[in-house]
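Q: What would this chain look like folded?
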Amino acid sequence: MKKKVLNMLSITLISFAVILTGCNPASEKTAGSETTGSAPRDTLVISSVREPDSIDVHKTTWVDDTNAHIYDTLLKRDLDGNLVPGLAEKYEVSDDGKVWTIVLNKTAKFHSGEPVTAEAVKKTFERFLQHSAVKFIAGPLDKIDAVDEQTLKIYFTEPFAPFASGLTTAYLAPMDPKALDEYGDDFGEQPAAAGLFKFGEHKRGSSITYMKNGDYSWGPSFVDNKGEPAYDKFEFRFITDDDTRVLEFKKGTTQIMTKVPPNYIQDLKETEGVELNSMSTPEWGAMAYVGKGFLGQAWWMSLFPGLAIMLVVLGFNLLGDGLRDALDPRQK
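A: My prediction, written as structure tokens:
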């Protein structure tokens, strides 16, 4: 298949989880799948430069793809920047702007199997306000009431419109109360929430492994795929050396490479079976990944800052003709 070079500028709210969950191991011929040291075909391996200090988002100011995807947010944004339902199926703001009423999705469940309830969200918010260094994103929050199982009222001392944006972040994503009760201050060692991925294992200085959430079925309405990812495991390997990161990608021991070194872009662009897609963003470096055009059916495009440059090794299912269409959830 012909390799393509696509330039996608000013796309700053594209989630890396689109790539992670759009892959199909059943039909994929993974680069390096016959190479010693490569991961099993049910595991997608991502190389990342920076290891998070914690997966507990209330105890860190660094949230990226390595520690965010166990969480599911109350609201989301589509590619046009519009707020859309997440775990909150709807919300209302009082005329004076001081009272927010949030109604939760009745089908959503935490990783423990317990339903996502207003009481659980209240508990998460209270913990966030107690521990987080970025508590300012909650604004002048006064009190929180769980009206019933699915309804939450949040009171502010003054209107705070940016709260809606805060609800799209992992910082305010509901945490599994069962895990909070069991692990307390050590929640970051065994985190649980309501996201696509369940925590597997954290090897300090080496990797973080997540398992797919097989019960997930409550993705938003504007995309086709509202359910679980195809892969069983997602392993983030922390490789700080540029040369090593590129070598492991070329060997096939990793299928996704974040922050591709600029001096390797031309080399990889000229490598057979590699597709280069560039995006300009304010925060992220380059990314290389195994796959091709499979983004369109996944919905996590609005969770985190955008991807910068992606190099694609062909082999995954073709779900769309070109990255531009694939990144647009309206292309169904």
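DSSP finds seven helices and 15 strands in the chain.
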